[in-house]
Specification:
- The protein is α/β, with parallel strands linked by helices.
- Helix content is 41%, strand content 15%.
- The protein has a single domain, classed as Rossmann fold, CATH 3.40.50.
- The strands form two sheets. The chain has a five-stranded parallel sheet with strand order 2-5-1-6-7, with helices on both faces.
- Strand 6, helix 7 and strand 7 form a beta-alpha-beta unit.
Length: 213
């Protein structure tokens, strides 16, 4: 089984969108896929990101797709970092790791989606990047944005992942209105010999590269 963690340079970059695209890519290539989002904050009734993942899995596995509660074991109402959102019900990293591992099903690919960016605090001293490391994943996908500032954001996140010795691939989620990316940021990545992969048009290549990291 391949364990792949999907993180991003910040919140609202497109982790859930990308994870759903990866589910589709792997499933269409006859691989059994499961997905988890261990923590979701800002949950009023049901976790919206978890629902999207559940609906995508249901399309391919209508008989035995996981429930939303199985996909998202920890939910909090406040739209904030997990450490803040949890309040007095602080998250024990060991309990979190145990719950995540319990939810691993028999599959070819397990996709684990983070909350926010790499240094979002789960506790005061335990961050999302620590969870990635402790889960002993096979690969990390860093999703970056395409607006001005993405060079700095991308390089900082890549450096952090490198410092943790995590095998990483980077992909860009260019939303509407980010057309200037080709002129303002992509030339740097080209010059630095960093392959620019786009979530939308390169998802099958991204899925294959992650599987083989």
């Amino acid at each position: 089984m391949k364990k792949i963690f999907i993180t991003a340079t910040n919140t609202d970059i497109g982790k859930t969108y990308t994870t759903c695209k990866l589910i589709e890519s792997y499933a269409k290539n006859s691989l059994r896929v499961d997905a988890l989002k261990p923590i979701e904050t800002g949950v009023k009734t049901l976790p919206l990101d978890g629902e999207k993942l559940a609906r995508t899995l249901k399309r391919f596995y209508p008989e035995d797709a996981p429930s939303v509660s199985e996909i998202v074991p920890f939910t909090f109402k406040q739209p904030a970092a997990p450490y803040i959102a949890a309040g007095s019900a602080q998250i024990d990293p060991n309990t979190l790791l145990h719950v995540v591992r319990q939810h691993q099903r028999e599959c070819d690919v397990l996709l684990i989606e983070g909350a926010g960016g790499l240094y979002v605090p789960i506790t005061q001293t335990y961050f999302m990047i620590d969870l990635i490391k402790d889960l002993d994943v096979d690969a990390v996908l860093l999703v970056s944005h395409c607006s001005l500032g993405c060079i700095n954001d991308t390089l900082l996140s890549l450096k952090a992942l490198q410092n943790y010795n995590l095998p990483t691939l980077c992909a860009f989620n260019c939303k509407e209105g980010m057309e200037d990316f080709e002129k303002t940021s992509k030339p740097f990545f080209d010059a630095a010999f960093l392959e620019v992969l786009h979530v939308d048009k390169d998802i099958d290549k991204i899925a294959k590269l992650l599987y083989n990291l």
